[in-house]
């Protein structure tokens, strides 16, 4: 009787563990970089039109993040950004904030910005916030573009996205200082780097404790397996 109850307990724990693992997989999806996802979506859109893929530039991406940071809080009721930073800000503010070597500052050939009063997943942001008219569509398919950079930042009032295009030479423009590390950004995220979006910090911390709990539970489960093997 006790053995059968123990066996049922073992299988119950195994089912719970599988559920935890599934939850961990789902939660881990939130630890990525949505800016890189936007770049991937845009490049797939271009290749479907037989256009060349754009180089994912971290320097240009960081500048895009600075633009999004500058314009946060300017999302109108119809989810458009009413923000026009001075052109000099790109070289005098945004680039230095990122650690972009000024002699390598290239030519910015296009700009797309978007916002939503709620957070959108990358595919939704692409279709609902960034590509909303013929002008943005034509920018995506411009043959002169060679590089792309995306920045995204989240606030309590919504999410802000910025896509910058460049027609400069690949890998030689918008070079970051400190061997490509640049200056660490404390808010938001930008493309060209594997660093998770820092605006998801709370979610990242919760998942960290989730994994600690998972490891403890797995230890208990293995103890049960060892116990039944001994019996």
Automatic annotation (TrEMBL):
Keywords, comma-separated and alphabetical: Membrane, Signal, Transmembrane, Transmembrane helix
InterPro entries to which the protein is assigned, alphabetical: CAP_sf
Record flagged with keyword Transmembrane helix: yes
Segments passing through the bilayer: 208-230
Signal sequence range: 1-27
Gene3D superfamilies: CAP
Domain of life: Eukaryota
Protein's name according to its UniProt entry: Ferredoxin-like protein
UniProt organism field: Rhododendron simsii (Sims's rhododendron)
